[in-house]
Amino acid sequence: MTPPLRVLVVGAGVGGLALAQALVAAGGVDVRIAERNPDAAVWLDGYRLNINPDGSRALHRCLPTPLWEAFVATSATPPGGISFRTEQLRELFTLTREDMTGGSPDPADGQYGVSRRVLRTLLLTGLEDHVQFGAEFERYTVAADGTITAHFADGSPLEADVLVGADGANSRVRAQYLPDAERVPADAGGIAAQVPLTEETRGWLPAVLCDGMTLVMPKSGPASMFTSAFPGRDALMSAIAAGVGLAGRGLDEDGLLDDTDDYVLWSVITDHRVLPDGAVDGPGLQALALDMVRGWDPALRRLITESDPGSVRVMRFRHSRLVEPWISTTATVLGDAVHNMPPVGGLGANSALRDAAALADQIVAVRDGAPLVPAIAAYEAQMRDWGYRAIRESVENARRATTAGPLARRMGRAYFRARGLGRHLPRRGARSRTPAAPVTARTTV
Ligand SMILES: Cc1cc2nc3c(=O)[nH]c(=O)nc-3n(C[C@H](O)[C@H](O)[C@H](O)COP(=O)(O)OP(=O)(O)OC[C@H]3O[C@@H](n4cnc5c(N)ncnc54)[C@H](O)[C@@H]3O)c2cc1C
Fold it and tell me: N or C: which end of the chain has fewer CB within 10 A?
């Protein structure tokens, strides 16, 4: 009997774990995941993830049914869509949830807010025997027959037929495999924090800031503001109360509840040159953000002042350099490792999930007899298509967010129309314009 295909995934993040879930469910593949963090309790910090219909369909493809159902049940899906507003919170236009999901009743086509911790806990469930924590990948070598040997910081080598670099934005696999696809700075960055969503804050927050996402596009000035309500704890408690049976699906209900809050996150996106170089503490960053939104609606300013100073952080955006198609090998990459992008538009994890689903399909075909390297080449062509498109969109989104004003707003509206979103957008006299020229290959914007 032929031994099973050995797939080594470096990185137990969103994309790596989704791939592993799909391969383990498919069977007939020896899946190992090497994660440098010492244990499952050490997770990347971060805000909630917005999973769009592309990411949702990919997650549906990768997760076994009980975990998919737990994902849907525990996701926080505020009723509002995304509302585009002036700095005085006057509505410019709104994409409803229906606009965002195309009105599909299928949960797989849905739009969800999910806590990173909940998502990664779900993604790890059932993979305990496949993940090795404390395994810091350093480099790999390839034998003449394509067999890979991965080398780790503790000196132990591991052999595999396929190596998947799912090791995030500073990927070592990518650095060796595609050295030209390095990350470069973007022109924008931001200051972000969160405010607890409680009875008290709901008392002074306008409903639109409690019920969905808002993009504030001022008449002038080089800053925009994004807000997103995340009733994550509320969603978990509802799932538990409805008897979804999370514990029966390997999830620790109390542990998840302890780690999940309801909050509104905000970020002020601006030109990177305005952001501080050195260490500035939380109150200092809040003061800087307040300065950028001088004269804006009091509720938007209060979001900044009422934030927990410990939650305030500076984000300096970077993005992967777009490179020409390369010659595929038995090593490959997915997610942020190859298409890292500014988090303006929430496309990074969604693209990583699409990669995972597409690569899983190709690896299953190899299990069933298809040749390996052409299968990886087919995956990489698909991944470049949506991954590079997502980089272009995110860089454009970031640029648009720092060039406020009527023109930028009109371009924003035209952009969403061009994407087939917001079919019901009011025209408000704006002529449809072609969106700004996309970032071209090898651009280092
Ligand atoms: C503020 C912010 C908000 C965002 N919001 C959204 C959103 O709403 N929607 C969305 O789609 N995206 C969002 N993103 C982007 C999203 O977080 C990333 O695109 C996504 O996490 C990438 O997944 P990944 O699997 O490629 O990498 P990661 O999830 O980063 O996982 C990489 C893993 O590899 C491990 N690793 C790294 N190096 C090594 C090594 N040498 N050896 C072994 N293991 C290693 C890491 O420890 C980590 O566990 C946001 C990003 C930010 C910064």
Answer: N
